[in-house]
Amino acid sequence: MGFAPLDPVLHNQLRLAIVSLLVSVDQADFTFLLDRTGATRGNLSVQLSKLKEAGYLEITKGYKNNYPSTTCKLTPAGIKAFEVYVKAIKEYLKGS
Amino acid sequence: MGFAPLDPVLHNQLRLAIVSLLVSVDQADFTFLLDRTGATRGNLSVQLSKLKEAGYLEITKGYKNNYPSTTCKLTPAGIKAFEVYVKAIKEYLKGS
DNA sequence: CACATTATGTTTGCATTATAAACAAGTTTA
DNA sequence: TAAACTTGTTTATAATGCAAACATAATGTG
After folding, report:
1. Contact, B78 vs B53, CB < 8 A?
2. Looking at beta carbons, which residues of chain B come within 8 Å of A86?
């Protein structure tokens, strides 16, 4: 039993944190993710775009209290990818 | 409870696989790691060097059947780092 | 009203990383 | 001896990560 490949989209600290959060809360806006992950805005913006481009999340832009607000939600593909990733990486953690 | 940072030395597919293997078998040579990880020689060589440079493993060069043989073994720091990494990444996998 | 400050993100630029191709050095086989 | 195999290292470059700089609009403040 070799090591399963790790989805490169998810094998990144910030993107993994984002997806991990979204799996739990189902939906979240930019500011929430910013707060929970501790990332910079720039990095968060970039990584959200990559997750979107991968088809793992859906981004909806709207307004909240007159301010722009970006809302993120995992797609079914995103949820599935997370599950696959979790299963795969657990193989690597044996021996722990 | 935020997300703990993930040791960048270990947060790499090949290096993690190497360390994971070494935690189990205690000691292994280049060819064994090559076979088990499926990596290319070049990549394996580079990543072993990085693990060594990080102080996570000790490399001993010798001969086996007249051929050069590189033997790898985790240092205590390497073992500790793996444990810390495992604990840290498990936080990200909640919701699975 | 004018001007600073806050809120929310995006784009850009540079340093780091990952990885395979090319190279090296020696051994076995025919 | 020449070809092929074994064991690894170095190098070149493409991809990635990340924060600084930029952009835009709303809100306070004097």
Report:
1. no
2. 93, 96
